[in-house]
Structure formats: C-alpha cells, structure tokens
Amino acid sequence: MTTDHPSFPIPLRSDAAVQRGAALRFFMDGEPVEAFAGESVAAALMAAGRRTLRHSPRDGAPRGAFCLMGSCQECLVWIGTRKQPSCQVAVAAGLEVESLPWREARA
Ligand code: FES
User: Fold this and answer.
1) Does the C-beta of 72 come closer than 6 Å to ligand 1?
2) Span from the CA of 86 to the centroid of ligand 1 (angstroms)
3) Any atom of ligand 1 within 6 Å of the Cβ of 64
4) Ligand 1 contact via 83 beta carbon (within 6 Å)
C-alpha cells in the first residue's frame, strides 16, 4: 500500500467510542485493503494510508480525496467499467477498485 504522504503513519481511524460495521476486505490496484462496512472507499483508503488516487493531467501532481462529498471529483477511481468518485461509493467485500494510472498502465 502506498504511504506517499509526509503525515503517514498518523492514525486516521479513531477507535475510541466508535461502533463500526463488519470488517471486510476490498482490493485497490490488486492489493487488499482492510475496511469496515459503512465506510466510503475514499475514507477506507485514507485510513489505510493511500493518499494518491490519480495524477493531474496538466502537471502530473498527485491528486486525492479533497471535499469528501462528491463535488470536486479529485478522488475518481475505476470501479468496474465506470470512473466514480471514491468518496461516494461504499466499500463492499471483494470490491475491486483501480486508480486511474494503475488501470491505464495495464491497458
Ligand atoms: S473527494 Fe471530492 S468528489 Fe470525492
């Protein structure tokens, strides 16, 4: 899993007084990611230390989740045959998510 942010590994998932959904595993660029039911894909990836989901087509700068409410489109990922904002998609066991550069490199 990518740990490409200077703040890593600050724990982003608080464990005190939090009731979580069932533990599950999905896949990001073929690598397993542990998550909990009810989390968005973006939240689970951030908690796992994955910050970069794509790169700017203009200058190649890394891009990742920003607004976390579906407005900015910075968190686009491939899920199945569609690009979707990862902050608007709930995790599911076995879900296969691909970052834009990872899928494009495989094509
Ligand atoms: S973080 Fe802005 S649309 Fe997902």
Assistant:
1) yes
2) 7
3) no
4) no
Q: How many domains is the chain built from?
A: 1
Residue 13 lies in a domain: no
Q: Name the one residue in this structure whose structure tokens are 């005190």.
A: 16
pLDDT digits (tens, 9 = 90+) for 3-32: 565 555 556 666 667 788 999 999 999 999
Residue 70 near ligand 1, beta carbon < 6 Å = yes
Q: What is the pTM of this model?
A: 0.81
**Cα–Cα distances in Å, from 38 out to 13, 24, 35?**
14, 10, 9
69 has pLDDT over 90? yes
What residues contact residue 72 under an 8 Å CB cut-off, 6+ apart?
66
Question: Which residue type sits at 102?
Answer: W
Q: Which amino acid is it at 30?
A: G
Q: What is the span of the domain harbouring residue 34?
A: 24-106
CA of 20 to the centre of ligand 1 (A): 22
The CATH number assigned to the domain holding 72 equals 3.10.20.440
